[in-house]
Amino acid sequence: MVSVNNLTLTFGGFDLFKGVSFQLNDNERVGLVGKNGAGKTTMLRLIAGEIKPTSGSVSLSGDIKLGYLPQQMKLASGNTVLDEAKKAFAEIKQIKSEITKLTEQIATRTDYESKEYLALISKLTDLNDRYTILDGDTADARAEQTLLGLGFERTDFVRPTTEFSGGWRMRIELAKILLQNPQVLLLDEPTNHLDIESIQWLEEYLKNFQGTLLLISHDRAFLDNVTQRTIEISLGKVYDYRVPYTKYVELRRERREQQLAAYRNQQKLIEDTQDFIERFRYKATKAVQVQSRIKMLERMDIIEIEEEDNSTVNIRFPEAPRSGDIVVEAKGLAKSFDTKQVFADAHFTIERGEKVAFVGRNGEGKTTMSRIIVGELSYDGELKIGHNVTIGYFAQNQDEILDNSLTVLETIDRVAVGDIRTKIRDILGAFLFRGEDVDKRVSVLSGGERNRLALAKLMLQPYNLLVLDEPTNHLDMRSKDVLKNALLEYNGTVIIVSHDRDFLNGLVNKVYEFTHGKVKEHIGGIYDFLRRKKLETLKELEAVQRQQKSTDKTNAPSDQKKLWEERKELDRKIRKVENQINKLEQEISSLESELSEIDNKLTDPAAHGIDLSDKEFFTNYEGKKEDLATKMEQWEDLATQLDKLKQQRNKL
């Protein structure tokens, strides 16, 4: 489908890529990873044809259609949301117009046997075939479905695109690309402007995408759920792993250890060889050996090792002063902007030490609630901030809050008071602002640097309530992990607005869902919430289907044969699921027995001949545990599915 052949790209004497080759096959979903600056975005632009390589080539098989979503793009304006999305159907619109013209021509002709008439019929047939292949009749429905999946409401369809923020307009561009049904899809950080529900919708879409996908993302869960293969760019070369991201991280670590060992061995050989050359360079009796070793060094393919970027944010929040047991309490809280009501009748209580998440679609009020809690916005109803609560706030809109005219050092210096002033440079150093970096103007900082500076400001006072609105935006995976660990160790209360499931997983113990003007409390972690939401959605779907079925029975004549066929089909599905459950139960029982046997042996490893340094043994052991957990989850899903099928059968 896509072939990168011996590609080299040079910038000012520096080779960003050197002799790179790889192929993307039909229906593959591939993650493209590497350090910042490694060339991931540049590789997408090369494949998309936006830039040309210095040498080598990028070839696409046949006359395939390619869709490319860059991180930054020119956003269209002037149309309604739906009309802008329908621009994806330019070919369908053109074909429909030609079909109409040809049909009119044919209807007025009577020369049924002429070559011209037969040519018109043939052309009309070809156009109708193409129209069918492009699903022309369902184009409008697909446009609406895609926009709804990406978070738009039906009432948004007739609004001008200019009324939406840049993030929402990027969603329209993504919708247009998806609706074009490209055979090759290139996506550069597509989740940057999406909420959790829209990310999940996009995941499901991409899982079922009938084409080739190349994806750049810093969302670990998104990569794991979508991709099957990972291509890493490192030091101008590519390394291909036929596994998703998390497994790639493990394999990369093993590869690096092997590379380091080979590098050290080669460096020792080079050093020994050079010593030999220097020692015997001027001895005639050793001239042949010296020349041989000189030639060996010249021919040697030097092993390069990518320097590990061990610079990570070193965050440890100050000890939180003790607050009252109730930190935030809302009763009948409501907020409107002019005639638009964001939410109403919100009731919730956040207690000391809790870590909670605000989740929901963009525009449902998560940031608004955060700003109300920190005292930036007025409200209706009752909001109580607990005794001795001090609030540290990380705002999503750092561009507006940070003063662009100040330097990094001045930004911190103006906030710091007391003894903490003596530690300003240490704090900035912990956030990777070292040396001359502290004299940079805020105006020239990248998105990630702005986020780190805003986080550094939170270290200047011992807050006991942190309100963090999208704190992981622009942070790489390593920095996100460090921030997550710091929050896990923090002994205060935390409210986090985020759509990053991997970041929230294991961090929060309560989720507040903002949806349709309401705030709903869900006890448990983020994946508990998402699993329940999925079940709720299915129940709602079944209720609609039952209602539709009831209507059909009322309006249509009784059809015993149709009813019997429905029962027969449900019985077939029930038997299939029961067989799957029986098979899983046997596999689970077998795995439990194997793990129990291994656990018994581990109580006395020496007696059973187990070497505790045997990496393969423990890899196999952990693999069995993961396999068991997966099968247990599959069993639960199938049991739920079986229960629903039986309920449907009983209703017939």
Which key phrases capture this entry?
652 residues; alpha/beta; Rossmann fold; 5 domains; six-stranded mixed beta sheet; 20 helices; ABC_tran_Xtn; ATP binding; repeat
Task: Please give a structural write-up.
With 652 residues, the protein is α/β, with parallel strands linked by helices. 47% of the residues lie in helices and 18% in strands. The chain is built from 20 helices and 18 strands. The strands form 4 sheets. Strands 5-6-7-3-8-9 form a 6-stranded mixed beta sheet, sandwiched between helices. Strands 14-15-16-12-17-18 form a 6-stranded mixed beta sheet, with helices on both faces. Helix 5 (139-149) runs antiparallel to helix 6, helix 9 runs antiparallel to helix 10 (287-299) and helix 19 packs antiparallel against helix 20 (615-651). The longest helix has 43 residues, at 560-602. The radius of gyration is 31 Å and the shape is globular. The two termini are 48 Å apart. The mean pLDDT is 84.
